[in-house]
Amino acid sequence: MIVVDDLVKAFGGFHAVDGASLAIEEGSITGLIGPNGAGKTTLFNVIAGIFKPTSGRVFMKNEDITGLPPHELFHKGLLRTFQIAHEFGSMTVRENLMMVPGAQSGETLWNAWFHRARVAEEESALLKKADEVLEFLTIDHLKDEKAGNLSGGQKKLLELGRTMMVDARIVFLDEVGAGVNRTLLNTIGDAIIRLNKERGYTFVVIEHDMDFIARLCDPVICMAEGKVLATGTIDEIKSNDAVIEAYLGTGLKNKVKAEVGV
């Protein structure tokens, strides 16, 4: 579904992404792991149009989407969430969801004055969909709560709910587990699996929690120093010498091997 070909993103003389190539299969939940500074978030930002690449190409369903701005990618069904959730804190949870779909009739003064029935019909449909999304995510009891009052995990669920308001095709999740307690992280994981299996969503997940990655993701891609280091199942990644060294360093890698008798 997504093909990244020899992608480079440089900031001055520093290459945050340095010739990365990878493929994301449609219908997969792909994990993206690597030590801090590996280039994972920068890679997300380039694919999602937040940064323009220095060189290289990005394709979605064989269409060249390199450098397209986020709003154009949004309409193609490519969405990206952030490590720190971005909600409208003074609005309710339900209102946050209802704002997501674009080109709503009520956004123009003309329609608000002269096509009130159409506006009311659209708002009713959006209200119904928002409530269905909240029920799916098991946070319907929070629909009238101000979004700013939610916990970190609840805000991550709300971000996931936004993707459901526009029927996303592929969603890039950046550290969905950051600042989230284990119970809510399991709820988020359940929602991701259901969206993947029941609605055909494709996910790419940056996460440092290996248990979460192991539960959800196949395949797993490991990055280090801006490059793709390895791709495989979670067991293959965990036993890969290059991956172990990237996380632990050569000395610790040899110590671990000695302790397990390898």
Estimate the mean pLDDT confidence.
Answer: 86
Radius of gyration: 20 Å
Give the tally of β-strands: 10
Strand percentage lies at 15-25%
Task: Calculate the terminal CA-CA distance, rounded to whole Å.
Answer: 39 Å
> How do the helices and strands follow one another from N- to C-terminus?
EEEHEEHEHHHHEHEHEEHH
Question: Major sheet, described briefly?
Answer: 6 strands, mixed
Q: Low-confidence segments, ≥5 residues, pLDDT <50?
A: 104-110, 255-262
Q: Output the number of helix runs.
A: 10
Biggest sheet strand order reads 6-7-8-3-9-10
Which terms would index this structure?
single chain, 262 residues, alpha/beta, 6-stranded mixed beta sheet, 4-stranded antiparallel beta sheet, disordered C terminus
Description:
This protein is α/β, with parallel strands linked by helices and 262 residues long. Helix content is 42%, strand content 22%. The protein is built from ten helices and ten strands. The strands form two sheets. The chain has a six-stranded mixed sheet with strand order 6-7-8-3-9-10, sandwiched between helices. A four-stranded antiparallel sheet has the order 2-1-4-5, with helices on one face. α5 (116-136) packs across α6 and α6 (152-165) runs parallel beside α7. The chain is globular. It comes from Pseudohalocynthiibacter aestuariivivens. Residues 2-250 form the ABC transporter domain.
